[in-house]
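Students often ask why we bother encoding 3D structure as a string. The short answer is that it lets us treat folding as translation between two languages. Here is a chain of 409 residues written in the first language.
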Amino acid sequence: MNCNRFCGVISMGNEKKHPEIRFDGFAESWEQRGLTDVLSPTVGNNTLSRADLNYDGGEVKNVHYGDVLIKFGSFVDALNDKIPFITNGTLADYKSNLLQDGDIIFADTAEDETTGKVAEITNAKEANIVSGLHTIVYRPKRKFADCFMGYYLNTHAYRYQLLPLMQGAKVLSLGRSHLATTFVRYPSSLDEQAIIADFFRNLDDTIALKKQQHEQTSNIKKAMLRKMFPKREADVPEIRFQGFYGTWEEKILGDIFINHPFRAYIAVPISNGKYMIIQQGDNPIIGYGDGNIFLEYADVVLFGDHTLSLYKPEKPFLIATDGVKILSGLDLSGQFLYVLLGRYMPKTQGYKRHFTIVKEETVMLPPTNEEKNAIGDYFRNLDILITAQCEELEKLQNIKKACLSKMFV
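And here it is in the second language, the structure alphabet:
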């Protein structure tokens, strides 16, 4: 990704003729045409349900509208993406509806405003692929750079036209007649189209890689939580740091908790507060405020009484809601307690992990504080890495969102 090639172009007047951000070397106004002036709805689809498809094999692949909405991005790699086959479908049966590179698939129905999501077909020559239930297929009447239309038709620059056309209450839908009333804008230069499409494909590849890295690290954490604590009826873990020996000790969580009283109660954050305000839930930090902070934060864990949430504060804090326990452990670091709770909290209580249930849980503890601290530090480092990966992924996704907004008209 070379963002240095961008130059700013600010459009004038009511009709935008240029994107706000543009690659160097391109200055011509973008063309505007009716959708059906450049795309033809001449390719048929089928109405096969999921029950008619399989992933084991077959002669013909089938793009289901649900995959367009959820699974695929702005384009489908017909040769390499995981696409179901039509069970007992033969090439002869579907030959007239085979898709080509550049074909555009609209998902014509959804339960929300993702209706009209698009996927462009690539690598179709050897794939024998068709379009299925609740899709509308358009074939370009003129040459476009690979994937340009796939990206463009998923941007707000185009999709704002679809919102007033969607029909239905619980399920929204679009028809060919609705799509025919829309228009598209694009640069006439195939080179500019190709550079834009390549930019977003490279950005998508980077995002996919970061997602994969984040998932791998998260899976490592899950696996190590299982293996670095003894299984039921065992007294040593499967994996242990070098230099630590001896059997682990069984304890009841309630016997090792210290339950701290609140030091402050703040309902509404203020604009210039110094300390974070925490509530129960998966997004615990709701703002900042001033007041009588909880100073002994280093070795405590916040437990959401009625939620699945745990939080290990890194700075002094204030509590915004009730339903939260501030816990520390007898002879335990806050970091190890945080890991211990995450490992042993009951998995069968759904969202009702109330303190009265959790404190009765049996847990296993290492025989020495040194081993407890080593385990706590290991998972703290994993959490730092996972958080950094999340932040990097979110940053890339925000970059993509901003570019999709500013690089199309």
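Translate back mentally: The CA atoms of residues 335 and 380 lie 7 Å apart. Keep this in mind for the problem set.
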